[in-house]
Amino acid sequence: MVLFGIITALTRKDEFGWLDLFEENKQKAQALQTQISQTDTAIDTMVYKLYGLKYEEIKIVENS
């Protein structure tokens, strides 16, 4: 029984370690997603300016 208790304790410790790792990587992924979205918006804005699109034309492009 003592051995079983030790294994259970290690498993729970590992579980918390994996949970911490998951949360850390989740935050990194969310930060990357935010950066990707901001970069995408910046590229869209540059392309719209490059082609001289007006507000109405931009809305047509974005809604298509």
User: What is the rounded Rg?
Assistant: 24 Å
Number of helices: 2
**Which range does the strand content fall in?**
under 5%
- The ordered H/E elements are HH
- What is the CA–CA distance across the termini? 65 Å
Percent helix range: over 70%
Average per-residue pLDDT, rounded, comes to 89
For the secondary structure, the number of strands is 0
Write the layout of secondary structure elements.
Elements: H1 2-50, H2 55-63
Question: How would you sum up this structure, described in words?
Answer:
The structure is a single chain. This protein is mainly alpha-helical and 64 residues long. It has a domain at 24-64. Helix content is 91%, strand content 0%. The longest helix has 49 residues, at 2-50. It is rod-shaped, with a radius of gyration of 24 Å. The mean pLDDT is 89.
Features:
single chain, 2 helices, 0% strand, mainly alpha, 64 residues, rod-shaped
Quick recap of the structure?
Helix content is 91%, strand content 0%.
